[in-house]
Amino acid sequence: MLEMIKTIPALACALLLLAGGHAGAQRQAAPEPLPVCQLDPRDSGKLAVEPCRPAPPVQPRRSVAQVIGRMPAQPAPPIVPIVPMAPLPPSQAVPMPRAPQPIGACDTGGCRDAAGARYNGAGNATLDANGRICHRNGAFMQCF
Question: Which end of the chain, N or C, is less surrounded by CB atoms within 10 Å?
Fold first, then answer.
């Protein structure tokens, strides 16, 4: 038993030495801290560097009393007398588009319909003799 009492302190000292050596080894081999996580500027679905650590927590905000001021009083708008206006003259009736006219022949400057009316312009958008916009749809011309 006496031998056992002498052995326990010796074992404790050995453990302390081993633990101290291990702690020193950890200090020497400690990796440098990871960078803060950031998104890759080229691909926002990936991280720029992996592995990374999350950003430090935001400090809690201090409370401040909310002050809501009143709106300044505005004077009432001046009362403006209503001036009667003369009625507007009747407007001209908007002409309804005609029924599509069959096209007789076309050249580089426009087309002629079966009745001989000329449509000036190229492509599907042309003008009739009255200056109305006409649209060519296949073998028919309709003016609006």
Answer: N
